[in-house]
Amino acid sequence: MGYQAQFKVWRGDAEGGDFVDYAVDVEEGEVVLDIMHRIQATQAGDMAVRWNCKAGKCGSCSAEVNGRPRLMCMTRMSTFEEDEEISVAPIRTFPVIRDLVTDVDFNYQKAREVPAFAPPEGLAPGEYRMSQVDVERSQEFRKCIECYLCQNVCHVVRDHEENKQEFSGPRYLMRIAELDMHPLDVRNRKEDAQEEHGLGYCNITKCCTEVCPEHIKITDNALIPMKERVVDRKYDPLVWLGKKIFKRQELEQRGATGARSLDAPGPDNGSALDADHIAHIEQRGGAQA
Amino acid sequence: MTDPGTTTAFEAAGAPETGEAPVTHHTYDVVVIGAGGAGLRAAIEARLRGKRVAIISKSLFGKAHTVMAEGGIAASMGNANPRDNWEVHFRDTMRGGKFLNNWRMAELHAKEAPQRVWELETYGALFDRTPEGKISQRNFGGHQFPRLAHVGDRTGLELIRTLQQKIVSLQQEDFARTGDYESDLAVYHEYTVTELLKDGDRIAGAFGYRRPTGELVCFHSAAVVLATGGVGKSFKVTSNSWEYTGDGHALAMRAGAKLLNMEFVQFHPTGMVWPPSVKGILVTESVRGDGGVLKNSEGERFMFNYIPEVFREQYATSEDEGDRWYTDADNNRRPPELLPRDEVARAINNEVKEGRGSPAGGVYLDVSSRMPAAEITRRLPSMYHQFKELADVDITAGPMEVGPTCHYVMGGVEVDPDTAASAVPGLFAAGEVAGGMHGSNRLGGNSLSDLLVFGCRAGAGAAAYLDGLDEVPSVSEQSITTAREDVERPIHNSGGENAYTVHQELQQTMNDLVGIIRKADEMELALKKLHELKDRIPRVAVDGRRAYNPGWHLALDLRNMLMVSECIAKAALERQESRGGHTRDDYPTMDENWRQELLVCSLRDDEVHLEHQGQPAMRHDLFDLFELDELKKYYTGDELGGHRSDAPPRQSRGTEDAGDEAERSSTTVETGGDPGGELTGGGA
Ligand SMILES: Cc1cc2nc3c(=O)[nH]c(=O)nc-3n(C[C@H](O)[C@H](O)[C@H](O)COP(=O)(O)OP(=O)(O)OC[C@H]3O[C@@H](n4cnc5c(N)ncnc54)[C@H](O)[C@@H]3O)c2cc1C
Ligand code: SF4
Ligand code: SF4
Ligand code: FES
Fold it and tell me: Of A2, B47, B128, B650, whose CB neighbour count within 10 A is largest?
């Protein structure tokens, strides 16, 4: 079954680099990531590749295979001709660290700028009631494995470094949509998206949706509905003003989430004893022996 | 990310920065090693208790192994069956672990799991719902009632994302207060810790390197929480990722803590077996929980032939009864496909051995004949996706081929159940790296709940430890120098061994000789091979570049994998019985005398030292939760006195109560600190 394939893998770092040729054995059923591992084990022990699950679940192994943004662990070798030369390069939108590994901190920064889930006041843990149809809309977006392929292909940032400041990218606009559609979130999210995260830059090309390995309909189900609703609200100056005030109050309110978990036992689950508390531990060591 | 913790205090104190590569220093109250469920929950708790916390992880934030968990999280919320409660969950957990579990951990776990799950909803988690709008709960092996809260078959992703987002929300609070997102809770991702640093017998910090740059780092911190996960990468066929090199287990040993139950390694019954490159990747137990059945090459549902005596009463004896159970669980017994994992894995192993396996050496797991295609893709979307993409198999149209895969280690750091404190002052452990909770075998879904319950307790335990500390330990120059030498050795070596080759040999050894079915002579051979590898590992050499060099990273992980493998092999050779995740071909039955024996590993002069330790007897109110007839299957006659069925209860219990007190405090003493390390073998 096995054959030898011709690979071109980009090797280098922030200073620069180039494609290097490798002739590698391929066995039945393998994926591109298997081949990268074989190159590491037999020809280039120091070749940098990021991966974790090898099953399309963690979103670590994003790269551009023959110019197409993909998860290497989900790209089967059987989708190529045996005599086809295959190129593997790091995703382009983010700075290279080494070889196939890029610096994706941009995404963590943007994630931090989306205001967190704002739970309704007075609803205790265990009392949340939501229907399946209502949670399903946000659940679709929560399938996201943060592979950043959508962030990588979106032309707003792919070719325009200068937009990175203003534009959070499809993944984080979708996160705002997810919170907006959360049945119990109390914060108004639409203006967040438009004003703080650059929803207006998106011109619905759907490139993000096309590359999503989780098949999330980012554009149709998250971005377009938000754009429509932003337009509805934008012309009402009172709403806009209300939102600004709300936002400040909310920041102050959020300080109240610091409850200590073991002191708040939550609803009874039939425990005969009181909730167990952490006893004050004395300094450990000799004292107890 | 910014480095708010960078400190000049250490340099100011006069520590010289010698050598070529400088060391960057950071100072925190609590350092959590691991960004999986346990680590994130511990960090949240410590931060809520007012501590400055750093989270360190080898992979990117949000990619820890927990992300791969599929089936669900076990908690007796009683949403699907109101008869469920913590007592039932406790009993199931103890049965699943064949009564070798630390009963106090099992008790805390069963009681607190629902709170920990409900709390996730307040962080924004969106679980699947029941018709009444509560959290839906599904069936899983060994759980008497539908108990696993889930989100399709991507529960781990929901768990990790929710905790990650909770951390972000705490960082936003800090930002509002201090203008810096990382002022009180910082994430150091793609950092590897290679050594724990001590001041006398107490923890003083952690040393490691930053993967993208190879820069050396030293964290100064009086409390360290280990939440590093498992050890599966020592085996060839495994569902575990590259991160599972047993780092936390080895770090704890080198710091002077003890590992217990290392012989118990869970082989999940259903891993993919074809194509070869994906061999070992997990097929979630939900496939069976939702109705999937196992068949051999003759089309027989063979599990009916493998119901062990101890479980006779709880499992269906006919296919009809098993099938009826899915819709009427109160009047029928569950199908044997849902026996605990160790039983199912052994059964599959045996079917294949006796020639009734599938072409690729597994058996068939079929949902396609059990429910409509649309239902399969709704309930098991990622399984559908996984088989379609990786094996070109449509699970709505035909069966999957599956076989056992190394999945989880029950063994781990010995901790105090209430505080997650190890024997080393200042060192805490939670999640898969901690031992005891699951006994000899873990039930599905009990890990995710374990992470939250004990992650939370570890965070609280670390905070309480700091509150009681009157003198801050400090890191010595010498310990930094030693740690640095170890890290740089593979770079300075030249022309030595190849890290990848050594790793493959280690994996093959463990897989073939200390795998699912074990024999004395094979394990002796394994120990011999491990000894050879031990000589070769210090000679591993890598290309000298420090930035993101996977060969170097692997070279450093090898010594941890080796140490953990040695613990597994030694303990497995010593335990002369079969129980849970430990099956001996030469001692095929469970022996009640071994139930009270725990095998404990520690490090002496760089050698793994194994000793016996007594299992504390169960508190009588917990003991009384079981029927005497069931206990008789696991306990020796002498141990059964004092059960509630012995009349009259009060009178005969007078001495028992006193005994309980003694046991409780002796547990604390054992884990609290035993400098000599000479613990008595109680069950002798
Ligand atoms: C495929 C699969 C499916 C599963 N499904 C389920 C399920 O449905 N239900 C269930 O209950 N359990 C399930 N499990 C088990 C469960 O997922 C794991 O046991 C659990 O996630 C372990 O969590 P943890 O927090 O202990 O560690 P992990 O999530 O593994 O995190 C370990 C962390 O430690 C870090 N780390 C390790 N070493 C170092 C070091 N030296 N320096 C710095 N950082 C380090 C890693 O980078 C990582 O961040 C499954 C496991 C697998 C493999
Ligand atoms: S649809 Fe919008 S977000 Fe998506 S790629 Fe196009 S411009 Fe970017
Ligand atoms: S939305 Fe899809 S493409 Fe974008 S990061 Fe998430 S999984 Fe990847
Ligand atoms: S390695 Fe996890 S998605 Fe590819």
Answer: B47
CA distance B95 to chain A (A): 19
Reported ipTM: the value is 0.86
**DSSP category for residue A220:** I
Residues B171-189: what's their mean pLDDT? 96
Contact A74/B390, CB-based, under 8 Å?
yes
Contact A48 B171 (CB under 8 A): no
The closest CB to that of B550, out of A48, A97, A185, belongs to A48
Distances (CA, A) of B326 to A118, B133, B289, B316, B330: 38, 21, 9, 12, 10
Helix crossing, B520-536 with B499-513: angle to 10°? 170
CATH homologous superfamily, domain B18-264+410-515+525-634: FAD/NAD(P)-binding domain (3.50.50.60)
Contact B679, B611 (CB under 8 A): yes
- Please write the tens of the pLDDT for every residue from A8-54: 999 999 999 999 999 999 998 899 999 999 999 999 999 999 999 99
pLDDT-based confidence at residue B170 (cuts at 50, 70, 90): very high
Q: Which fold has domain A105-250?
A: Fumarate Reductase Iron-sulfur Protein; Chain B, domain 2 (1.10.1060)
Instruction: Give Cα B478 to chain centroid, integer Å.
Output: 33
Distance, CA of A213 to CA of A192 (rounded, Å): 27
CA distances from B12 to A66, A217, B25, B29, B218 (A): 52, 55, 12, 19, 15
Taking each helix axis as running N to C, give the angle between helix B103-122 and helix B446-467, from 0 to 180 degrees, rounded to the nearest 10.
90
Report the residue from B126, B202, B281 with minimal CB separation from A139: B126
List of chain A residues whose C-beta atoms are within 8 Å of the C-beta of residue B277: 27, 29-31, 34
**A46–B542 C-beta distance less than 8 A:** yes
Whether cis (ω within 30° of 0) applies to the bond prior to A125 is no
